[in-house]
């Protein structure tokens, strides 16, 4: 194995101060890919921190965990760090390449509604829902901040897919209403003919 000093690393300092820490995917000395770091303080006698226990997992660890979360046919779940860096995405290339969706949206005026939604989601500590347009398609997105990591989880899908079940139900209600009206009209016409 390899050794390196972690004393200057943010995750080490925070855990050494007595708090647990989960990083966004970061470069780690000796690793060929970005890693997510889990760090916990180790306590000795008298509640004194005597060390730090850490574990490193692949940048794609959470991406694999959320890959099967789907909404409609094409909707999916993703997680973003405090500044918009992709922490988890069904397409692992987003975490591998350290994609920052907020920065990418800021550079493309066609993505302004997406940028607004992401800014709101990343700054909010409340659960929320919003709309945005991507490549001409309207999307609905729900977001929530994770208390344990301060990451933001976003579930999004084209509005049409979210609304698909509602539209099917609406059509069924309309068809039922039309059918009931037609049957009622036929019954009334027959009844009137018998009396006339």
Question: Overview of this structure, please?
Answer:
By secondary structure, the chain is α+β, with helices and mostly antiparallel strands. Helix content is 37%, strand content 28%. The protein has six helices and nine strands. It has helices spanning 10-16, 61-66, 93-96, 101-106, 112-123, 159-195; strands at residues 21-22, 35-43, 49-58, 70-71, 75-80, 86-88, 128-134, 137-145, 152-158. The strands form two sheets. Strands 4, 5, 6, 7, 8 and 9 form a six-stranded antiparallel β-sheet that branches. A three-stranded antiparallel β-sheet has the order 1-2-3, covered by helices on one side. The longest helix has 37 residues, at 159-195. The radius of gyration is 26 Å and the shape is elongated. The N and C termini lie far apart (100 Å). The relative contact order is 0.10. The model has no long low-confidence stretch (mean pLDDT 86).
Overall 3D geometry? elongated
Number of helical stretches of at least 4 residues? 6
Task: Give the biggest sheet.
Answer: 6 strands, antiparallel
The total beta strand count reads: 9
Helical content stands at: 25-40%
Radius of gyration: 26 Å
Q: Report the β-strand fraction as a percent range.
A: 25-35%
